[in-house]
Amino acid sequence: MFGVWAPGEEVAKLSYFGLYALQHRGQESAGIAVSNGSQIMVFKDMGLVSQVFDESTLSSLRGHLSIGHARYSTTGASVWANAQPTFRPTATGGIALGHNGNLTNTLELQSWLTERDAQEGSLVPGALSHEATNDTSLVTALLATYSGYTIEQAAMEVLPHLKGAFSLVFMDEETLYAARDPQGVRPLVLGRLERGWVVASETAALDIVGASYVREVAPGELICIDADGLRSSRFAEADPKGCLFEYVYLARPDTMINGRRLHSVRVEVGRTLAKEYPVEADLVIPVPESGTPAAIGYAEQSGIPYGQGLVKNSYVGRTFIQPSQTIRQLGIRLKLNPLRDVIAGKRLVVVDDSIVRGNTQRALVRMLREAGATEVHVRISSPPVKWPCFYGIDFASRAELIANGLSVDEICRSIGADSLSYVSLEGLVEATESGIDQLCRACFDGVYPIELPLAERLGKHVLETEPAQRTGDDGLVTASTGAGAADALARP
Description:
Layout (H helix, E strand, L loop, with lengths): L1 E4 L5 H11 L7 E7 L3 E8 L2 H4 L2 H6 L4 E7 L14 E4 L4 E10 L2 H13 L16 H10 L6 H8 L5 E8 L4 E5 L8 E5 L2 E5 L2 H6 L3 E5 L4 E6 L2 E6 L7 E2 H7 L5 E2 L2 E2 H15 L6 E4 L5 H11 L7 E3 L12 H6 L5 E3 L1 H4 L3 E6 L6 H12 L4 E6 L21 H4 L2 H8 L3 E4 L2 H8 L6 E2 L1 H4 L29 E6 L6 E4 L2
Parallel strand pairs: 14-23, 17-20, 20-21, 21-22
Antiparallel strand pairs: 1-4, 1-10, 2-3, 2-4, 3-24, 5-6, 6-7, 7-8, 8-12, 9-10, 9-11, 12-13, 15-16, 18-19, 24-25
Helix pairs in contact: 4-5, 5-6, 9-10, 9-16
């Protein structure tokens, strides 16, 4: 998720490169919205950022203000109608919005939107879409219902009603907005350009566009950026509960969270893992790329040589082509392949970031043994994942989480390793240098910092009454100031 306010700059291209740096956060669809001061244009489609946009498309998106989004679905199916940024017309123009996180009171918000829809004159034509089935569209539609308000005023009305995890970037024709939930579960940072401002999900996106890091958007804060500069409002008191899994896996290693570069955190976790669970071995190898920093730390602390025993295919991204049965049986080899000369005859310590279902590790251990490893000792740089996430990570259901029903020894036997150990929750938290009471670690210990509704009011498809049909269209949406309407144009 990315936003930029920079008159005189090619803001669509800045958004493109910002999203490129954030591709790891969402690989299902991508979109960019741009305003030239009188009109908002939105272009989005299914696929990776580099698949959705080309030079001619970006050149057609001209303006001084832009937001972008790369989607990873947690509410609503992975279809075109749910791609972001979402757009709604307002009484004076339009609003485009991107969202990172997951709301937990989605059905409550849907009822509230229906109530507002029933109030005469509360909605301009087209403000309520019946195609989208995600929480993001509900927020956008709610903001559009306040016809007598500015977007800033509408946001101060709507944001306190949102529960769950949300980092938002949104825009009207003149202003860039950013907001973060009171717990600050998902990251959101502010950066400065020579002639403008940038907001992004991670500091790595600031680096790629040449923006200097200013600070994190505070939990419970709304930021507005326009020709008058930057102003800040608070819609809720801060109660920090940053996601611990961001430190483990989700964010890039070159990103900073809470003042710490994640590469350094992950190396320290590896050192802690070596102290807590040493083993006699000949070589420490990572599962690239997410296991690499922790493997470096494990090797440094243990004195066991570090080596590259697995080669990752750097060009394997999200694919919409289903593998043949033959390739499906080979499984993990599509992304990883062993270096036989390096690992044959060796006792290996294999460091990975997490185990969710166990399928990947099971295939990996088998592959390493076939390549000649005499022992395979698996070390995991996070505690066992025992609980699902409702705040923006699409984990398996609790029944599918291997650590939910099995002990560590049973998981070890299930994946075929000689030994298996996870870093302790205390060791992981200490490496972050954040207090445990300032972190959401629900997937590890089941303590959910934001109240959850009944189970039947949760879930990825809670807003879907029937499967969405549009799966391959791409579109350009425009709205002119004062028009109060939107036109969707489909490209062949």
